[in-house]
Design a protein that fits this description.
By secondary structure, the protein is of the alpha/beta class. The chain is 43% helix and 13% strand.
């Protein structure tokens, strides 16, 4: 039983730890540059420009982070925006006495407008959610399908994309069909052929990752969406990796539905995501979460973001992440991503790695996936992190997935390569 003295001691310790954390975090934010590097520096010295941007991230200088494919690190402007959001909302001093800082019962157009502009659609086609898994669940639960109806997907889908359909199959008897993507995918035509040959009269939905989490291949989303439309099939795209990694426009892609998790490559807060619904299909999707407004078709996609009370400051951070990406420039970011990934792929290939990354430059961007037998992936991953503060991700037995965010320096990649060589030599795997 906790007596009064122990309670006070424990409480004081907890408070001290909280204040220390707060002071440390705020100190780190205060030490980060107050503005992004001047764009003119890019023309004078590109490497110096990206090195300056690296200072916006709280990742320690001696740490190398090669796992943006799982989650990104939110930079200082995003973190400051989150704090500003809390400072504003938690005062509870909104002008309208009926206006409260909750997310789930409002249009939140101040956040949807910049996001819609960023992804290339209309505000009313966007619902603010918490991640791609949630959005994918809305899609899988919301489309009218009968037992025996088919959804067609690849064998490289993220669990958050695949399993909402598996649940629907187990409960309601729909059929999940998979095509097997080549490793690597050599060109877009072979992907289109695989999908086209797998379509049957029972196919109702084509679901695929724009960029797969397994190998990082950039699938031909526009062509696959056109194929689906030509057959009277709905197209649903898991775009978890795309915002912030490369330029895209959902209207140009032509898909019916698009989900995403901007916490990866856009470096937005964790718990900020979105669902895009082409206006013509909004009324065909049933809600998964129901509260006030769930059946109000006049509010269009907004009815899918009515999820009950949630975290508004995350939306402040999402808006700041979009602003930062726009200030840097998506063209610059995408070129940087491709250059770093190409360098990494070339160097790993020199070391005998088996590439699962597409040889077609149009079908790859900032994720390099290689197989490195007989190197045991998990042992290498632990050794790199605990011994050298290099974080990677992969899959057993020998797959490595290396992500190359724009702030990464060439010397960081070289350090990873050096330690990879050391590991093989020390373990007599060279």
């Amino acid at each position: 039983m906790l007596d009064r003295r122990n309670f006070l001691t424990t409480s004081a310790t907890g408070l001290a730890a909280t204040l220390a954390f707060r002071g440390n975090l705020l100190a780190q934010l205060a030490s980060a540059p107050s503005s992004l590097p001047d764009r003119s520096l890019f023309d004078k010295n590109e490497e110096a420009y990206w090195a300056e941007l690296r200072k916006q991230f709280l990742i320690p200088a001696d740490e190398i982070y090669l796992n943006n494919g799982t989650v990104g690190s939110s930079p200082a402007p995003v973190l400051r925006a989150i704090f500003d959001g809390y400072t504003t909302t938690e005062k509870m001093d909104q002008q309208d006495p009926e206006d409260y800082p909750i997310w789930g019962y409002a249009a939140w157009n101040e956040f949807r407008d910049p996001l819609a502009d960023f992804v290339g659609c209309h505000r009313d086609e966007i619902a603010l959610l918490r991640n791609a898994t949630e959005a994918n669940s809305y899609i899988a639960n919301g489309v009218d399908m009968k037992p025996g109806d088919e959804v067609l997907m690849t064998d490289q889908e993220h669990p958050g994309g695949e399993h909402p359909w598996n649940l629907r199959a187990k409960r309601y008897g729909i059929v999940v069909k998979k095509i097997t993507l080549p490793r690597p995918v050599k060109n877009a035509a072979e992907v289109l052929n695989l999908f086209s040959e797998a379509i049957t009269p029972r196919t109702r939905v084509i679901f695929f990752s724009h960029i797969t989490t397994f190998s990082g291949v950039v699938l031909p989303a526009k062509e696959l969406s056109a194929l689906a439309r030509s057959k009277g099939i709905l197209s649903a795209v898991d775009g978890a990796h795309v915002p912030g990694m490369m330029r895209f426009n959902v209207h140009d892609i032509g898909c019916d539905m698009y989900s995403s998790s901007p916490h990866k490559w856009l470096q937005a807060p964790k718990g900020s995501g979105f669902l895009y619904l082409r206006d013509e299909v909004i009324d065909r999707l049933w809600n998964t979460i129901a509260t006030e407004g769930w059946d109000d078709t006049k509010i269009r996609a907004e009815r899918f973001q009515r999820i009950g009370s949630s975290n508004v400051p995350a939306l402040w951070g999402l808006r700041a992440a979009i602003k930062m990406a726009n200030e840097i420039g998506l063209e610059r970011i995408e070129r940087r991503h491709r250059a770093l990934a190409d360098y990494t792929l070339a160097e790993m290939s020199k070391r005998g790695a088996i590439s699962w990354t597409s040889p077609d430059a149009a079908l790859r961007c900032a994720i390099v996936t290689v197989n490195v037998p007989p190197v045991p992936r998990m042992d290498l991953e632990n050794w790199l992190w605990h011994t050298h503060k290099i974080r990677i991700r992969g899959a057993d037995p020998n797959k490595l997935r290396l992500s190359t965010p724009y702030y990464l320096q060439k010397q960081d990649i070289d350090r990873f390569l050096e330690k990879f060589d050391d590991y093989k030599r020390e373990n007599k795997l060279a």
